[in-house]
Amino acid sequence: MTLSDFVTARAAGGPHVSRAARASRLSGLVMAAGAALLAALPFLVFSTVTDTLVNLFVLVALASMWNLLAGFGGLVSVGQQAYVGIGAYTVIALADLGVQPYLAVPLAALTCAVFAVPTSWLAFRLRGDYFAVGTWVIAEVYRLLVVRVDSLGGGSGKGLTGLSGLDQTLRGALTYWIALALALATIAGCYLLLRGRLGLSLMAVRDEETAAGSAGIDVGRAKRLVYLVSAAGCGAAGGVITVSSLSVNPDAIFSVQWSAYMIFIVVIGGIGFIEGPLIGALVFFTMQQFLADYGSWYLVVLGAVGIAVALWLPGGLWGLVRSRTGLSLFPVGYHVRRPDVRE
Amino acid sequence: MAALLRLDGVTKSFGRVTVAEKLTLSVEAGEALGIVGPNGAGKSSLFAMISGDLRPDGGAVWFGGREVTGAPPYARTRAGIGRTYQVPRPFEHLTVFENVLVCAHQGAGLRGGRAQAHAMDVLERTGLAALANTPGGRLTLLQRKRLEVARAVGTAPRLLLLDEVSGGLTEPEVAELVAVVRGLHADGLAVVWIEHVVHALVKTVGRMVCLAGGAVVADGEPMRVLADPKVRELYLGGGPETETTTGEEERP
Known about the structure:
The structure holds 2 protein chains of 2 kinds. By secondary structure, chain A is mainly alpha-helical. Chain A has helices at about 5-15, 25-45, 45-70, 80-95, 100-125, 130-145, 170-195, 195-205, 210-215, 220-245, 250-255, 255-270, 275-290, 295-310, 315-325; strands spanning about 15-20, 160, 245-250, 335. Chain A is about 75% helix and about 5% strand. A two-stranded antiparallel sheet of chain A has the order 1-4. Chain B has a single domain, classed as P-loop containing nucleotide triphosphate hydrolases (Rossmann fold, 3-Layer(aba) Sandwich), CATH 3.40.50. Chain B has a 6-stranded mixed beta sheet, sandwiched between helices. The chains are: A mainly alpha, B alpha/beta.
């Protein structure tokens, strides 16, 4: 394309079309301020608060990744714990080899993306319910393989080396920051991914898969890409869990409970919206804090809330907000501005 | 010149139901072909095999001089086959503009401002420009039918497959849609149009094919095909609907 072509193209499309945005500039400022405040928290509050918030950030990251997978790729997986586990064990193994554990977290994401390629060949042969069950089985297979490796601690798990030299306060703050960075990176990643041409394709696939194929979208490729991104994000989350807990247990890290959390958060927050996992994680985290003392009643209440939202609020909490106010914190759409176009 | 689209002895059956029996059919570039036939004649299956949603058991499908029998739908769309669905399948959470824009990106291979300008142009032509910011899920039936056409045209096709775009519409609505299709065909786009509302077809197509039991019963000039005794018999002596009533109800 020559420069003049480019200018004409801009002139033809540019002035009429803007990226859909209502109050997005203001919300962008508010979010940036919020992120800055969160980043400053280790200087402002006791470490018990920041230690708890690490869990919230991990939940935000995991839920965002599941939302990308199921809400945009239509891939309902109950096996993302496979990547939580592989990510966690990658950090353990790399730390044993002398890699600084915090630096091992992004490498854990990379490792999971690599593992996700052959896994997707297998899992993508299955559809719908079979895909869901299949991913769970695959996660179990990964757990069974890991416990056979003695150098990774076998069935009893292993502690993380490489962080013992650090001052406890500094370690707490670093862990907090890396968890915050993970949460922000997953949200920003989802936003940037969905804002591009690929994002529009993914939203079309989400809405109508058959028609998406006829629109010229390579549905299989789009799905495989979100699967890889989601695996990488869950792997980084697994790495953060490890640097936070300083040890790993195979039964806990490969537990299907992670998938249950992700699904619950996304369903109550609003599937198919970037904002959904954020709201859902906040609600879930708050309920966890208040109901933790009530034992099994905690699970009963969680289940009841999940069922109630699924029945009466199919768009989740953010779906409700959006339909009432039209608000969008992360505008990924297009808005045609012309006098003859209805608002 | 070689035909734009050619089906060569295409066969397809679901168990004991045969939807295509050694079907051979050609469409020239820029031609407008109407397809009629009773329910279960294999009309929609024929489209599915041309667009790639369905794979034939035997035979070959050629498009633009290349065999596409095993090619997936997205590859055929990019090669220049645009299709609509009988029951509209809008991207419900995308706006009308985005519905067409994604086709301009992925089907027509356009980017940035060019893709946007193309999408807007298609919306003008299909009478949807005023609804550009409306979500696909909020459209009326006529608007959904128009959006089906707009999306197919958005992929910049050489061949447009229309599957009962008039079904369920009122008479004035059918007339509006016929005008849209005539305009597209006048610009050189080849059209293959399945329709129960035969009078809508007769106004637009230069050739008509009648299908029954997955085979061609008659092929030729529209009025002759409609007058053919074999065709009239298929429609229980009454002939295809030539009155103002519409096809099957399919309001969502």
